[in-house]
Amino acid sequence: MKNIIQLLRFVLNHDANKGKRFAAFRDLLKWQIGSRLVPGDVVFNWLEETKLIVANGEAGLTGNVYTGLHEFADMAFLLHFLRPEDTFFDIGANRGAYTVLASGVCGAKTVAFEPVPGTFAKLEANIRVNQLEKLATARNSGLGDKEGELWVSASLDSANHIVPEHSKVEKIRVPVRRLDDATTEIPALIKIDVEGFEMNVFSGAAGVLSNSMLKCLIVEVNDAGKRYGFQATDILDHLGKFGFDPYLYHPIERRLEPTTVGLSPNGNTLFLRDLEHVRSRVETAKKVAVRSLHV
């Protein structure tokens, strides 16, 4: 019951559903009932001409079915910032929602990293269904501070994370590389969601972080890093050494607001440098239809 109440609050209070709560509730019921009556993958028509292959229980994707953009501010920032000449890194890509937005809507090149084989297969399927093979490259590996292998949980959906070898959860061993060694591409924007392992990834990414072509990061900042010995403030301090400052984004006003790390309502924080360049990008981007809104 608690999960149902949380889901209702999320859907009905979501920015894209304001003023359209009845329609949002209807769509939620339609999905919940339909996906149980006819279980399995559904091809969902998403933003513009893009699609998502979604199944019941896939928390990393179903929020987009209910709301248009699950992580409204962060996804809208990506849509407003990226241009076709850019490269985007999707680190902890899960089933590829951000990848589809970056390459399918913005036309940018994407390099996506997802270590869990079953999830990686869904990522590849979402790339194929959108015919993005020429723009989006998927890598079935993890990222860390050194090359090797690590154990990762395999049955926690979007909450899969690096675990110790003695962990009792269902887990698999996956290859891990340093970001600096994994690709020669340099991104303009990085999204990283690795359930607390962010500092380890950053430790292997000094070359990418120091490259002036990189302007923005969308970083999940919460207490999950404590399992690896890090605090949220460690991310702030580390990225600050490369000239990045934390911001929140208000998509409707296209306004960037300086913030304290970790205060974003959805757990993500934007880290930006070359602020005037970023502001110019988001202010001049085309509008995108998200349910009843043009964002």
Automatic annotation (TrEMBL):
Q: A biological process (GO) annotation for this entry?
A: methylation
InterPro entries reported for this sequence: FkbM_mtfrase, SAM-dependent_MTase, SAM-dependent_MTases_sf
> Which Pfam family would be a valid example here?
Methyltransf_21
What does UniProt give as the signal peptide span? none
Q: Does the keyword Cell wall biogenesis/degradation apply?
A: no
Q: Which Gene3D superfamilies match?
A: Vaccinia Virus protein VP39 (3.40.50.150)
According to the UniProt entry, its GO molecular function terms are: methyltransferase activity
Residues of the Methyltransferase FkbM domain = 90-245
- Report if keyword Transferase is assigned: yes
Q: Which UniProt keywords apply?
A: Methyltransferase, Transferase
Instruction: Output this protein's name.
Output: Methyltransferase FkbM family
Which species is listed as the source? Rhodopirellula baltica SWK14
What does UniProt list as this organism's lineage?
Bacteria, Pseudomonadati, Planctomycetota, Planctomycetia, Pirellulales
